[in-house]
Design a protein that fits this description.
alpha+beta, 21% strand
C-alpha cells in the first residue's frame, strides 16, 4: 500500500502500522478529522488567497499552499515523513470525486 491514498474529496496519507508493530485499523477511525476541520474553518480565506492551489495541513496548522498536488505531497512527506497529513485542492465549490481501489477482488 502506498503511503497515501485518495478518498472522498482530498488526498490522505496514512501510516498503516502502529508503533507497537501491529496493523492499524486505518479505515475504522476517522482519519484527518482535525485537518479537515481546520480546512473548513479557514476555507473562505483560503479561497480568497489561493483558489485552485493545494493546501497542506497537519493537525491544526496550515503549513502552506502549493501550485500542484505533487509539490504539496512532496513537502508533506519531507517535513513529516510517513504520517497522516492532508493535501486538499482549494475550491469554493468542491467537485465530487470517486476513486476505485485495485485492492478489491472482483470475480
Amino acid at each position: 500500500m502506498s503511503p497515501y491514498f485518495k478518498a472522498g474529496k482530498g488526498l490522505y496519507t496514512l501510516n498503516a502500522v502502529n508503533l507497537n508493530g501491529k496493523d492499524d485499523d486505518i479505515m475504522g477511525s476517522a482519519p484527518l478529522t482535525e485537518e479537515l476541520k481546520m480546512y473548513e474553518e479557514n476555507k473562505q480565506e483560503l479561497v480568497k488567497k489561493a483558489s485552485g492551489k493545494y493546501v497542506l495541513i497537519k493537525g491544526s496548522t496550515i503549513i502552506d499552499t502549493f501550485e500542484s498536488e505533487k509539490d504539496a505531497i512532496k513537502a508533506g512527506i519531507e517535513r513529516f515523513g510517513n504520517v497522516p497529513f492532508l493535501v486538499k485542492k482549494i475550491e469554493e465549490i468542491e467537485q465530487k470525486q470517486n476513486y476505485t481501489s485495485n485492492l478489491i477482488k472482483v470475480g
